[in-house]
Input
Amino acid sequence: MSNSFSKQHNLLALFGGTFDPIHFGHLRPVQALAQQVGLEKVILLPNHVPPHRPQPEATPSQRLEMVKLAIQNAPLFAIDTRELEKNSPSYTIETLVELRQEIGPEKPLAFIIGQDSLLSINKWHGWDHILDNCHLLVCSRPGYATQFTDPKMQNWLLEHQTTDPIALNQVANGYIFIGDTPLVNISATEIREKLSSGDSCQDLIPDAVLQYIHQQHLYQQ
Output
């Protein structure tokens, strides 16, 4: 095994979300990204109080249970509950700084976001320090622009962007990698609407999660 290949398994990645509910639009692009960049682990970070969006319909414990059920046969994934245990808004930068202190300055760390999040990242709290702590791995999203309208932000993207997965594994932080991920054009909002209307979501949500949703009578009007 070449040295560069063995280094490909150093990279640890985080993927945050409300997961209300978790669905294939979360899981499949991340699994594709993991293959592209050689991720050893993707740690799912369920949010407790998302700062930029409406509050979740399911309780924190229900959302955590759905995440556990979704990944029970997927060894790529693990769960970190630190954000779920907070009663205050979960700011990504605070979690990244905390994790960076735990794993040390040298281990490559990445945070996975969608293309829509990348294009609004300058609205995030402490966004300009994110690349000081990790790489950004970006999942393609259907219908979203591929570049910033603001020239300063576009220059920031071009300055940090790489197309080389090996580079992500060789340094601890600082790169942006835009993955060629499957375009799963479904949102949790649409899924909640379908569930509320009694429409089938079998192709959108893992079976075990769907069973749990029905058992708990979640997302019913």
